[in-house]
Write a structure and sequence with these properties.
7 domains; Dna Ligase, domain 1; globular; 4-stranded antiparallel sheet; 62 helices; 1688 residues; 10% strand; DNA Excision Repair, Uvrb, Chain A
């Protein structure tokens, strides 16, 4: 790496994208390649070949000199050449653009099928959007609708504004269009002259609007279903891209006749006119000279013909094409559409397509091979064209064999074949190109003399001209000469790039190096360390305290070391990236560095009460912790004076603090609770005091559980993990907060050295004695566990309400049925039975250990946080207990065994994974296998989730990489879009505010910060900013609060005052657009008041003052903090400081506030901070702690909630509208009783037919019809439960059930499944035959109506065929274009290699047609009609019935039954109606009195075999719904915080509004963020994103700072809709380079070229791609230097 001075003083402002024209390629080129050979037989380069020396020498040939610049291979940059093509070919880069454009053009009149007023609208909308006006561009649609005098006429008649021959009617329309054009032009000029926006201030919102405008315009013209041109009224011929050709579909005669008949009826043409028109059409069809564009049916058009079509279209639709593809408007070509075709190919220099050499033979580059074939085919094609034209009569002998191999009987056919091969090679060439796109002086003299192999040495030297010379390890004379030249100045004529010579030396002691371990998940993964070189060692040695930041251990981890190469990098490493600046993690501000294991044990043993040392030992211990302390070491007086002077271990620690903390700084005073509990200090019951008096109220008083430090002296407590580990608010953390990272690092290092030295003195071991208990306790433990294993089955049977003898059978039945709920209940029963005894055994065994308290070394390690946990200790001393996988017992195989050694469905708890053994006595093989299974499962989860979590973090970083804090303290992305006006809503840095989060930590800050506050810093803070105005505003706010004015954030206005005083408050049920009808009624009454009456109410309400941080800048004004922090200060002073602080140390409220305000002022986030990248790292790094597939089971009968990585994918990446487990929670009103709540639950719950079906009987026999054909006569009898058995359980009646069976279940579900069953059997038996056509005889079809099939097919087409995803459509078109050609295999390989595209399948589905509202509704309707038994009409009727049955005041369900019996006439009508729906239904009968059964007779074909009718009906009954509420599956009534709550599986917010008299709909919540955004607005969705992320993280005890969550939620909702981190969401970015560096590089590059986009070089991706410094952090600003002119 060279120095910064080599870079010129220039900077890239922006980057544009366009296509080189043919003339530009010829101008750039230095040679035309005409020879397809590169080397002759002697290996010499052939002129005019692909390795012509005019394009530069070939890499590897050192003797070749460039004939253009005269430089060698190392110096020559390469020069381009070109190939002239005899015929134009399609530009493969624009295949989908050509396909989309030609599809919307009429091949007869060459016009785009779009209305004139749509063209004007598009033109002026794009003009305003280019200028940065988004709202005004959308307003043009309203202006258009108001300006058109006759909208129907404008939509029915389409004319061109420039047409000359117009009828009187069309002339009037043109006049209207001209007036419309003037109106729109005048409006646009007025807006642009306002100057409120500019193209430089354009944001991603404008980009997104531009995309939507273009997309809607394309839908209007390119995807219309009209078969005739709206201008010439001729039939439109559709062109389809297939195998690099545009195939046209011919129009058959029937369609032409049909169109003619329609025209005749519509226009009233005479027969003569019709005949003339028909003759003209026949002439146009037979004569190729007149059309010159359309060939015979099912033929293709050539590239020349396609170019001519686009040229003529440019003449007539220039404005449309220029608006769609702005790059055409900037082109200087006479026909800009020619950029879609290629006549000249640029040849890249040989430097970038080097040859490989094998045994002296040159092997050409793959790129060169493709170019050689293009040259060869161009040569053949050129001579074939000459033969056809007659200019050449005979081919050269060299080409004759090549032409003979070309397929085709005539020269014209051979030309077509050669052109097609040429097109394929051009496609392959572009495919390869795009794939490559994606992918001191004396000291220095001694180092140079030593060379690269002797330490300390050097590798090379760079002189003033920038030339680098490597030092030869075997040539000491060369190194000596180079060393002497270091002192010689450069000659006067030398152009100096460097100010002096640069020596690339070895690493030395004291140099800063950057250490990194992959994967780099967060900012502390790269830290700067001071190096100490150990010449004889070959490993990295690092203090263990720093390993947590790298997530590194000592099992073979590999770290990378980087040596900064210039002063700028070294300065940033020393002051920004060094370890003492990375003590806190940006995720939540918690410490990263800390001591563990041996150091924690040693520090506890050293600081325990009763540990004393002599003078010699005391001084030796202090010196071992401070070996590099240069000043005189200060010591403390002894604790014990007589009979011998002794120093305590606590004094040793206090001495370290005394010498490390700077002398002019006050010593810290604070306290906290240690990890060592009271039980370890008090191992026996306390005795009465012998001297009298009462015992202390707190057990911790006489122990070392409380850490107390006063003025830097440790008075009480031990130093355990909570003090020196990576724990918040410990000893090291407090020192970091008060004195900075340097002091904290020194303290951590000193304690580490001290503990290691002391551990060598005392030692620490663990033996078997730590786990020994008395014999009686051991015997009791064995007996208790033995009885537990034997009696567990009895206890489980009681829990499940099953006989003990039937438990195994019940277990088998639940397993075979596959019911997870029943299996979960069995697991819960075993857990409940085994849990209590297991806990008592472990607890009693722990209490009866022979070694107790801190005398037990294992217990000491566990309770001090050094290593291990109580689970590990219990596994060694007591028992293992139950092992589980994903919260369940050991899974069963298909044989019902967890391991082969157990019996099938064994009820012994050992078979389910219960291990009553311990490590002390050993475990049996079965238990060993169970532990192996659990361990392997955790390894599998870790391996599988790495890909998902890694890809998710990559998506987050790519989206948020450009977000930073600007100098006005706003948070913006690289496009300039404001995401937050104050970072995290308070503007404070995450790593600077850990002590401002709670009252206890604020006490540490106030007690020490006030003493450490420097008067000079306080005076400077008060003199900066608008201090007087701030104080004045604060006094004004305090006066308002004293008067009792509500300043708590509750809204209060004149309208609300009016609502509280009005007597006419009515309860009007229902909601309209999110507002209740009662509120709308109050709103109307308010608007009916006179203005003076409204002013009376407004005067009665005092104006609420804005928060102080919204009026003044918190970055430059002391005391400008958020309202939450001010409230915390007041609460702290009243509840903590006044009651617990002695009067001598008590501060005033103003002094407390000043201390906190100074801390807040110093905690303001720095401008240029890359808060977006920090947010992505904070959310992505904890993903590895989450399991892959996690579901939270909230009880036996309640809902499952997706957690872990799947839920994070739904929220962060896919932003799916249809989430896996949607839930909704609504609390009941206080007056609602449990019974009414259960009634509502029953009303909303779905009821399947299987729940009310009592029995099913099927009888089958042979029956001969009148025609003589045999049929299977099958009688299906369905018997339903009596109404009294479910009237209080399900909200259905027998009449509703029977009506559902007749209308939906039998004809639409059961019969459909029967037909599908027979079709499946025929396909299995006759797989070699073709499927029967739809046009078969009715007897062969046997039952299905053709119209019904056609209707169903059409419905499926509508449902699943529409897609609004333009990107997906373009990918499909490219895939179709690549079939059968050379580029196909390369495209397929590229798709397989791009693993990142696989996770985007969910996003593509969401972006498709089924993701919008209409598509979703149609899909739901189809699913309900097919699987649940309701069509659209039936669903509407059912909804009306529900509304009619629903009482307004209460919810007592209607239990009315039919009073009279069904009449015979009605029964006959119902029978006939059912039999008409399918020919296989021959009879139907039902219970006319009680409607408790029905009977259907079917005639099934004999030739097709026998279907399993029982399974079909049973399966259909299970999934068919008699009663349901759309979107809701299951409903539960739960009690939460002593309040009833309705919890549903599924979401239907509007339905909840209908029960506002029972439900508190103002507190409704759902985890479907899209539903929240749709119903309550985007701000509610923003808070919902934060809530969902916190819910997932809290389940794993993961803490992420609120500021990160607010930033991410603001980014997701900044454009007015909820978007996630997908490539579709990134499409609105203004940086093409950022989009291309994410995914689908080709698609984004193509869009940038067509749209004429320019990259403003603001995004980090763009800067990195072009070698520019990233405009973040220290490079966010620009320095203005003072230049002295005139030599002063």
């Amino acid at each position: 790496m060279g120095s910064y001075s080599q870079v010129e003083h220039t900077r890239i402002e922006d980057i544009g994208f366009r296509i080189y024209t043919e003339d530009e390629i010829r101008h750039i080129s230095l040679v035309e390649v005409t020879n397809d050979e590169s080397f002759n037989e002697l290996g010499h380069i052939i002129p005019s070949g692909l390795y012509d020396l005019r394009m530069g020498p070939v890499p590897g040939r050192t003797k070749d000199i460039c004939q253009t610049c005269g430089k060698t291979n190392l110096r020559c940059q390469g020069h381009c050449g070109h190939i002239e093509l005899p015929l134009p070919v399609y530009n493969p880069f624009f295949y989908n653009v050509l396909n989309k454009t030609l599809r919307g053009i009429c091949c007869n009149c060459h016009r785009i099928q779009v209305r004139a007023h749509h063209v004007l609208l598009l033109k002026y909308q794009m003009q305003l959007l280019d200028a940065g006006y988004g709202y005004e561009a959308l307003e043009l649609e309203n202006i258009l609708s108001r300006s058109i005098s006759s909208p129907m006429e404008a939509t029915e008649v389409a004319v061109g504004i420039d047409d000359k021959e117009l009828s009187q009617k069309d002339a009037g329309i043109v006049a209207d269009l001209m007036n419309l054009k003037k109106t729109l032009s005048k409006y646009c000029d007025k807006v642009i002259r306002g100057g409120t926006c500019s193209p430089e201030t354009s944001t991603s919102i404008i980009k997104n609007l531009e995309t939507e405008v273009v997309k809607s315009f394309i839908k209007k013209c390119y995807y219309s279903d009209k078969k005739r041109c709206i201008f010439c009224h001729q039939s439109i011929v559709r062109l389809t891209l297939q195998n690099s050709r545009f195939i046209r579909s011919g129009v058959n005669k029937k369609e032409k006749d049909k169109d003619k008949d329609k025209d005749k009826d519509k226009d009233g043409q005479t027969e003569e006119v019709e005949a003339e028109k028909e003759e003209r059409e026949e002439e146009g069809e037979n004569g190729e000279e007149k059309s010159n564009t359309i060939l015979d049916a099912q033929s293709y058009i050539t590239s020349e013909q396609a170019r001519d079509i686009l040229r003529q279209c440019w003449d007539k639709n220039q404005e449309v094409l220029a608006a769609l593809y702005p790059v055409l408007a900037t082109s200087e070509l006479p026909y800009p559409t020619d950029i879609f075709f290629l006549n000249t190919l640029m040849v890249v220099p040989p430097k970038f397509r080097p040859c490989n050499y094998r045994e002296g033979v040159a092997i050409e580059h793959q790129h060169t091979v493709i170019l050689r074939n293009i040259v060869r085919l161009s040569k053949v094609l050129r001579f074939l064209l000459s033969l056809v034209n007659g200019s050449v009569r005979e081919l050269p002998e060299v080409l004759q064999y090549m032409v003979a191999e070309v397929a085709g009987s005539t020269h014209v056919e051979k030309i077509q074949t050669v052109w097609y091969q040429l097109q394929n090679y051009v496609d392959a060439l572009y495919d390869a190109e795009l794939s490559r796109l994606v992918k001191s002086t004396t000291k220095g003299m001694r180092q140079v003399q030593n060379g690269p192999l002797v330490y300390p040495g050097a590798v090379m030297v760079e002189d003033e001209e920038g030339h680098r010379k490597h030092l030869n390890a075997m040539d000491p004379k060369q190194r000596e000469a180079m060393a002497k030249k270091l002192l010689t100045p450069p000659e006067s004529h030398v152009h100096c790039v460097n100010a002096h010579k640069i020596v690339f030396r070895h690493l030395q002691n004291g140099d800063f190096v950057l250490m990194n371990r992959q994967p780099t998940l967060h900012r502390p993964s790269i830290q700067a360390h001071r190096a100490r070189v150990m010449p004889n060692d070959r490993v990295f040695r690092m203090p263990y305290a720093n390993c947590k930041a790298y997530n590194a251990d000592f099992d073979g981890d590999e770290l990378n070391m980087h040596f900064p190469q210039n002063e700028l990098a070294r300065s940033e490493a020393q002051y920004l990236v060094t370890t003492h600046a990375q003590y806190l993690t940006p995720k939540d501000g918690s410490p990263l560095a800390g001591l563990i294991q041996d150091c924690v044990v040693a520090s506890v043993m050293l600081t325990m009460r009763g540990k004393f040392f002599t003078r010699q030992d005391y001084q030796q211990l202090v010196y071992s912790g401070l070996p590099d302390h240069t000043a005189r070491i200060k010591t403390l007086p002894p604790t014990i004076l007589k009979p011998q002077q002794l120093w305590s271990g606590k004094q040793v620690m206090s001495t370290l603090l005394l010498n490390i903390i700077p002398e002019h700084k006050a010593r810290p005073s604070f306290s906290f609770r240690t990890s060592v509990k009271v039980d370890l200090w008090q191992t026996s019951e306390p005795r009465p005091w012998r001297a009298g008096g009462s015992a202390e109220h707190r057990r911790e008083t006489m122990t070392d559980s409380d850490f107390v430090m006063r003025d830097g002296e440790l008075l009480s407590g031990v130093i355990d993990k909570s003090a020196i580990g990576s724990t918040s608010h410990g000893l090291v953390h407090v020192c970091y907060e008060l004195y900075g990272g340097v002091v904290a690092s020194k303290l951590l290092t000193a304690i580490n050295r001290l503990c290691v030295y002391y551990l060598k003195w005392c030692g620490h071991t663990i033996s078997v004695k730590e786990f020994v208990t008395p014999k009686s306790v051991s015997e009791w433990r064995r007996n208790a566990l033995s009885n537990l294993v034997e009696r567990a089955a009895f206890g489980v049977s009681l829990k499940l309400d099953v006989m003990e003898a039937d438990l195994r059978e019940y277990y088998e039945r639940c397993h075979m049925s596959g019911n997870e709920k029943d299996m979960a209940s069995i697991d819960a029963a075993y857990t409940a039975v085994l849990g209590s005894t297991t806990s008592s055994v472990t607890g009693q065994n722990e209490k009866q250990l022979l070694r107790r308290g801190l005398d037990n070394h294992m217990r000491m390690m566990v309770d001090t946080g050094a290593k291990g946990s109580k689970v590990n200790m219990n596994q060694m001393a007591s028992l293992f207990g139950s092992v589980a996988i994903d919260g369940k017992r050991m899974p069963l195989s298909i044989t019902g065994k967890s391991l082969p050694s157990f019996k099938a469905y064994e009820v012994n708890p050992r078979a389910g994974g219960y291990i009553p053994d311990r490590f002390m006595t050993g475990i049996n093989p079965k238990s060993y296998y169970f532990l192996c299974i659990v361990g392997r499962d955790s390894l599998q989860h870790t391996a599988v989730k790495t890909a998902d979590s890694g890809y998710l973090q990559r998506c987050l970083i790519k989206h948020l990489e450009g977000i930073q804090v600007k100098y006005d303290m706003t948070v913006r992305n690289s496009d300039g879009l404001v995401l937050q006006f104050s970072y995290g809503e308070d503007g404070l840095d995450v790593t600077k505010v850990p002590f401002l989060k709670s009252l206890a930590t604020m006490d540490v800050l106030v007690q020490n910060g006030h003493r450490l506050m420097e008067p000079r810093a306080l005076a400077l803070a008060k003199s900066t900013g608008e201090h007087e105005l701030v104080e004045k505003y604060r006094k004004k706010m305090s006066k308002r609060n004293k008067k009792g004015v509500n300043q708590s954030g509750v809204r209060w206005s004149g309208f609300l005052k009016f609502c509280s005083k009005i007597d006419e408050q009515k309860h009007i049920p229902g909601y309209t657009v999110g507002r209740s009808n009662a509120n709308l009624h109050l709103q109307n009454l308010w608007h009916q008041l006179r203005p003076e009456e409204r002013d009376k109410y407004k005067k009665k309400t005092a104006k609420i003052l804005d928060p102080i941080n919204s009026v003044f800048s918190s970055a430059s004004n002391l005391g400008v903090v958020s309202e939450a922090l001010d409230a915390m200060v007041a609460k702290y002073y009243e509840q903590v400081h006044l009651p617990h602080t002695p009067a001598t140390h008590r501060l005033t409220k103003r002094e407390v506030a000043t201390a906190v305000h100074m801390k807040a002022l110093n905690s303001i986030v720095n401008p240029g901070e890359a808060v977006g990248a920090l947010c992505a790292q904070a959310l992505g790094e904890p993903l590895t702690q989450m399991t892959l597939n996690t579901f939270h089971f909230a009880g036996r009968d309640e809902l499952n909630v997706t957690l872990g990585v799947p839920r994070m994918k739904e929220v962060l990446r896919t932003a799916s509208k249809n989430i896996s487990t949607p839930i909704m929670e609504v609390p009941f009103l206080d007056h609602v009783t449990r019974s009414r709540a259960e009634a509502l639950r029953m009303k909303l719950s779905e009821v399947s037919l299987g729940k009310v079906l009592e029995s099913m009987t099927i009888t089958t026999g042979l029956h001969q019809k009148e025609s003589g054909r045999l049929k299977h006569r099958t009688v299906l009898r369905l018997t339903f439960l009596p109404h009294k058995e479910y009237r209080f359980v399900y909200a259905v009646t027998p009449s509703q059930i029977l009506a559902f069976v007749e209308k939906e279940f039998i004809p639409k579900i059961v019969m459909k499944d029967i037909h599908n069953s027979f079709k499946h059997k025929m396909a299995m038996c006759d797989s070699y035959k073709k499927r029967p056509s739809r046009k078969t005889a009715p007897e062969e079809r046997e039952g299905r109506d053709a119209a019904e099939d056609a209707q169903e097919t059409e419905k499926n087409k509508i449902t699943f065929g529409v897609s609004d995803d333009e990107n997906e459509e373009e990918e499909d078109e490219e895939r179709a274009a690549g079939d059968g050609d050379v580029a196909t295999s390369s495209w397929s390989r590229k798709q397989e290699e791009q693993d990142y595209s696989e996770p985007e399948e969910e996003e593509d589905r969401e972006e498709g047609g089924l993701s919008d509202d209409e598509g979703t509704e149609s899909k739901k309707k189809d699913a309900v009609a097919e699987d649940e038994g309701f069509g659209e009409e039936e669903m509407e009727e059912a909804g009306e019935e529900e509304n009619m049955e629903m009482p307004s005041s209460n919810l007592h369900l209607s239990t009315k039954r039919r009073k009279e019996n069904v009449s015979p006439e009605e029964a006959r009508q119902r029978q006939e109606l059912l039999m008409e729906k399918d020919s296989w239904i021959v009879d139907y009968n039902f219970d006319r009195e009680g409607e408790l059964w029905c009977e259907v007779t079917l005639d099934l074909p004999v030739s097709r075999g026998v279907c399993d009718l029982h399974s079909i009906v049973r399966s259909a009954a299970t999934r068919s719904l008699v009663h349901f509420v759309r979107g809701i599956r299951r409903v539960f009534v739960v009690e939460k915080d002593s309040r009833l709550m309705l919890r549903t599986e599924g979401v239907n917010i509007l339905k909840m509004f209908e029960f506002e008299h029972l439900l508190d709909v103002n507190h409704l919540y759902t985890n479907n963020i899209h539903q929240v955004a749709q119903m309550y607005g985007i701000e509610a969705a923003q808070r919902s994103v934060i809530r969902e992320l916190r819910a997932v993280q809290s389940a794993y005890d993961i803490k992420v700072d609120f500021r990160h969550l607010t930033l991410l939620a603001d980014y997701f909702t900044c454009e007015g809709e909820y978007k996630a981190c997908s490539r579709q969401a990134l499409a609105s970015s203004l940086s093409p380079i950022q989009k291309m560096s994410f995914e689908t590089c080709t698609q984004f590059l193509k869009s940038a070229v067509l749209r004429g986009e320019r990259d403003r070089m603001e995004s980090p991706s763009a800067s990195i791609a072009f070698g520019q410094p990233v405009k973040l952090g220290t490079n966010a600003m620009q320095l203005l230097q003072t230049v002295n002119v005139g030599g002063s």
